[in-house]
């Protein structure tokens, strides 16, 4: 596996790379969820590129950016083991050159609710860096986890609006969960044992809403209540929001509405750590 830091070296490496080319953009601190993305790319593509770049423009608070784990050597080991051909680990100046004006990308309505409301500017940062990386890597396919459903919709919007370069197919990869049901995330490493025990209420809340939907519950208010009831039973967490939205537009569903499909999103704070998890609810209960 090649390890590359500059745009110039990346362009040279990709010039003769066999197609199709699969791309897995990450911010590092790789875990089994990232491994699933890389393996999915490896199963479909002749060349697999993984990027590790902690993007400053998607952080609302400087302290969060500073606290984000950097584990590049371990990341490289995991990426190579899972089949990556190239690891791109650029410095800030390679993505945001000081002599170049980088226009921010506004994802519009997709970014105004949920995490967009909780973290102003976050998705503009995500959209901008993903657009930059797509321009540099020019992949045929890009791989993202379903756990961050709003981010995934923003990325699909970016891919659909591209006017230059080859079309990019965005591949959705199912959320990878630990044995206790908690979705894998680099943030989980900051939880205390007690915090971890409290945090498992999040996947259980998603399960409760899924099970209610499978039993035939269709009202938004009732499905929300099923999730919130589980969360409130855990004294170690603070609920930020429980939301049911249209899975395509991400618009809020009225409390009195009866759903066919809905994206359930839960955001909580445990041990000062913000955790997010999501699940699609449908007439089969959802995944």
Notes on the protein architecture:
With 287 residues, the protein is α/β, with parallel strands linked by helices. It has 2 domains: 172 residues, 3-Layer(aba) Sandwich (Rossmann fold), CATH 3.40.50.620; 95 residues, Pantoate-beta-alanine ligase, C-terminal domain (Pantoate--beta-alanine Ligase, Chain: A,domain 2), CATH 3.30.1300.10. The chain has a 6-stranded parallel beta sheet, with helices on both faces. The chain has a 3-stranded antiparallel beta sheet with strand order 7-8-9, covered by helices on one side. Helix 7 crosses helix 8 and helix 10 packs antiparallel against helix 11. The protein starts with a strand and ends in a 6-residue tail after the last strand. The model has no long low-confidence stretch (mean pLDDT 94).
What's the level 1 CATH class of the largest domain? Alpha Beta
N-end to C-end Cα span: 35 Å
Question: Which overall shape is indicated by the principal axes computed on the Cα atoms?
Answer: globular
**Spatial ordering of strands, largest sheet:** 1-4-3-2-5-6
Helix content estimate:
25-40%
- Second-tier CATH architecture of the largest domain: 3-Layer(aba) Sandwich
Biggest beta-sheet profile: 6 strands, parallel
Beta-strand content bin: 15-25%
Mean pLDDT: 94
User: Please, what is the CATH homologous superfamily of the largest domain?
Assistant: HUPs
Could you name the ranges where pLDDT drops below 50 across 5 or more consecutive residues? none
Radius of gyration: 19 Å
N-to-C order of helices and strands: EHEHEHHEHHHEHEHHHEEE
């Amino acid at each position: 596996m090649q390890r590359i830091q500059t745009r110039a070296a990346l362009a040279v490496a990709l010039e003769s790379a066999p197609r199709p080319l699969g791309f897995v953009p990450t911010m590092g601190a790789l875990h089994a969820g990232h491994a699933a993305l890389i393996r999915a790319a490896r199963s479909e593509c002749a060349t697999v590129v993984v990027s590790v770049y902690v993007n400053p423009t998607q952080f609302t608070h400087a302290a969060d950016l500073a606290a984000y784990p950097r584990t590049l050597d371990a990341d490289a080991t995991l990426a190579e083991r899972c089949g990556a051909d190239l690891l791109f680990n650029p410095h800030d100046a390679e993505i945001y050159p000081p002599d170049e004006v980088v226009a921010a990308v506004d994802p519009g309505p997709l970014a105004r609710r949920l995490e967009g409301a909780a973290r102003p500017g976050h998705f503009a940062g995500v959209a901008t860096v993903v657009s930059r990386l797509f321009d540099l890597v020019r992949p045929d396919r890009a791989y993202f986890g379903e756990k961050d459903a709003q981010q995934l919709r923003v990325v699909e919007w970016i891919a659909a609006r591209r006017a230059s370069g080859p079309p990019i197919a965005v591949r959705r990869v199912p959320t990878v969960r630990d044995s206790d049901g908690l979705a894998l995330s680099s943030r989980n490493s900051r939880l205390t044992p007690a915090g971890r025990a409290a945090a498992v209420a999040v996947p259980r809340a998603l399960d409760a809403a899924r099970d209610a939907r499978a039993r035939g519950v269709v009202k938004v208010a009732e499905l929300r209540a099923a999730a919130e009831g589980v969360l409130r039973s855990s004294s170690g967490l603070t609920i930020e929001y429980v939301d049911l939205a249209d899975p395509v537009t991400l618009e809020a569903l009225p409390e009195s509405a009866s759903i066919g499909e809905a994206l359930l999103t839960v955001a909580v704070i445990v041990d000062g750590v913000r955790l997010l998890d999501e699940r699609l609810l449908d007439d089969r209960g959802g995944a």
